[in-house]
Write a structure and sequence with these properties.
The protein has 264 residues and is an alpha+beta fold. The protein has two domains: 76 residues, Membrane-bound Lytic Murein Transglycosylase D, Chain A (Roll), CATH 3.10.350; 138 residues, L,D-transpeptidase catalytic domain-like (Beta Barrel). It has four helices and 14 strands. The protein is globular, with a radius of gyration of 19 Å.
């Protein structure tokens, strides 16, 4: 086993280790240098088409380019906390927190340490209501309902748009929870289906791949659309699928760090 693999294993284990019983003063942590910026976190399982240069990615509108900072917050570590639990509570990833706080290859937290959470979707900011989701907090927030097969987009808690959508099929369901957009690509590649997924917004890791929000998939070789007539029924392998017009509209407004909630 080479040194790089050992380092990766050690880093993963430390993310689960509870905070030490005794705090150290922040002055003893010179490596902590918070950066107020969104981070893509884990490398995506989907990739850009080789014929699409990164420069081809459409920039978000000016009014949404800095919206990720709307959800930034700070968290004071308590005894027993782990980076994994903190990341899950705020709907982000361990990698995002580690990067934002300069924790390095061997991230260790102690009680009293103040962590910057650069993009967050705190548990409880979106919940099911009697006639639809109830959303609190600032900025854009995308919500998908597995039971209703409907998606909504809110801005500062006010409804902007809603669409029919599809979540995962029964044998490969979507995972309810709070997330944030981790990657934004013009299209993602679905390896098992040899197809492209337009207007890709990656939100969480699922079994070694990245699940996300996208438009109607189409075959890589023929361009034939898959599931075009199935929007509104649970048909995907864990992602949230919109029709192409809705996916394009959402993609144009979305940004890395945008809160996403999947309700049961």
């Amino acid at each position: 086993m080479n040194l790089r693999i050992l380092c990766l294993i050690a880093s993963a284990i430390l993310a689960w280790v509870p905070a030490a019983a005794h705090a150290q003063p922040m002055s003893q942590w010179p490596g902590i240098a918070p950066a107020m910026r969104p981070s893509p976190g884990m490398a995506p399982a989907v990739t850009l088409s080789p014929d699409i240069a990164p420069a081809a990615v459409r920039a978000p509108p000016a009014q949404t380019a800095d919206r990720a900072s709307d959800t930034a917050t700070h968290y004071t570590v308590r005894a027993g906390d782990t980076l994994w639990e903190i990341a899950m509570h705020y709907g982000t990833t361990v990698a995002v927190i580690v990067d934002a706080n300069g924790l390095g290859a061997y991230p260790l937290i102690v009680p009293g340490m103040v962590l910057l959470i650069p993009v967050s979707n705190e548990v409880g900011t979106a919940r099911a209501g009697p006639v639809g989701p109830i959303v609190t907090g600032r900025g854009l927030h995308f919500v998908a309902s597995m039971s209703a097969q409907v998606c909504w987009l809110f801005d500062d808690g006010a409804l902007l748009q809603h669409w029919p959508c599809s979540t995962g099929r029964p044998e490969s369901p979507s995972v309810p929870g709070n997330y944030t957009v981790q990657t934004k690509l013009p299209r993602g590649y679905f390896v098992a289906g040899d197809s492209w997924m337009p207007d890709w917004l990656g939100i969480y890791e699922g079994g070694g791949t990245e699940n996300g929000i996208h438009g109607i998939p189409y075959a890589r070789d023929t361009g034939e659309k898959l599931w075009q007539n199935n929007v509104g029924t649970p048909i995907t392998f864990g992602c949230v699928m919109l029709d192409d017009a809705a996916a394009s509209e959402l993609w144009a407004m979305a940004y890395v760090g945008m809160p996403v909630t999947i309700l049961p």
